[in-house]
Amino acid sequence: EAGVAQSPRYKIIEKRQSVAFWCNPISGHATLYWYQQILGQGPKLLIQFQNNGVVDDSQLPKDRFSAERLKGVDSTLKIQPAKLEDSAVYLCASSLDGTAFGEQFFGPGTRLTVL
Amino acid sequence: SQQGEEDPQALSIQEGENATMNCSYKTSINNLQWYRQNSGRGLVHLILIRSNEREKHSGRLRVTLDTSKKSSSLLITASRAADTASYFCATPPRGAGGTSYGKLTFGQGTILTVHP
Fold first, then answer.
1. Of A41, A98, A106, the CB nearest to B102
2. Contact A49, A69 (CB under 8 A)
3. Nearest CA-CA distance, residue B108 and chain A, Å
4. Euclidean distance between CA atoms B65 and B41, whole angstroms
5. Are A42 and B30 a contacting pair at CB < 8 A?
6. Residue B92's pLDDT is what?
7. pLDDT tens digits for B11-44?
8. Overall average pLDDT of the A40-63 stretch
9. Nearest Cβ partner of A56 from B42, B44, B100?
10. Do residue A42 and residue B100 have CB atoms under 8 angstroms apart?
11. Hey, are the CB atoms on B104 and A45 less than 8 Å from each other?
12. Nearest CB neighbour to A42, from listed B93, B100, B107
């Protein structure tokens, strides 16, 4: 079974530039999550999709972050403009149905460095 | 905010020894999950324990849960160099179920180093 795919794996940008990350979840998984993991911390949820609808974006900094999941499959996360504190690993995860007991499968992540 | 807090922050042991790490959480839960993260395989789900369970085993892993103390522990027996990784506890918000309750709140993690 193919896992969660993410690209790019690494990205270096200057502050105030924009950047986009892509995620392809496991086939058939209805729920998709984006997490931000700052060095030395655990992942923090940014947004959760169920199919192509948003069910939780309470921790997404909406003034600069946006995300979409067109057709309920792939998803993109965008940052515009980036700040120094956005340097982190961005993890995408998917689960079959998004319930509290569902196992989440994580992609390899995109490591973002903002200079 | 972090729901879980792992203890210790770092643990260094020799191969063959047991490793124990602890997690404390703040709010009521319906389950608690442990994840492992290393550079090779990324973040991987290890085990889930439900709030009505006190202990669960999976291979060399043993997890306990004490809901009265809001704490959990993960024991890795007969550790191997390949167990070197960061270990996180994670909890979903308590609720009746449904899609909004799948999101996980992770702790800061315990960095485990197993020396050959």
1. A98
2. yes
3. 5
4. 26
5. no
6. 86
7. 999 999 999 999 999 888 889 999 999 987 789 9
8. 93
9. B100
10. no
11. yes
12. B107
Asked whether the beta carbons of residue B43 and residue A43 sit closer than 8 angstroms, the reply is yes
Q: Supply B105's token pair.
A: 């709140």
> Is the Cβ of B99 closer than 8 Å to some Cβ of chain A?
yes
Cα separation of B8 and B14, whole Å?
16
What number of CA atoms fall less than 13 Å from residue A15's CA on the CB side? 6
- Pair type for strands B110-115 and B10-14: parallel
Q: Which two three-digit tokens encode residue A111?
A: 């490591």
Residues of B (77-96) whose Cβ lies below 8 Å from A: 88, 90, 92-93, 95
Structure tokens at A55: 């069910």
State residue B8's pLDDT score: 94
Give me the pLDDT at residue B99, please: 47
Burial class for A101, CB neighbours closer than 10 Å (0-12, 13-18, 19+): middle
Residue A59 tokens read as 């921790």
pLDDT digits (tens, 9 = 90+) for B48-105: 999 999 999 999 999 999 999 999 999 999 999 999 999 999 998 776 554 456 788 9
Nearest CA in chain A to B1: A44
B1 pLDDT band, cuts 50/70/90, is very low
Arithmetic mean of pLDDT, A18-29: 96
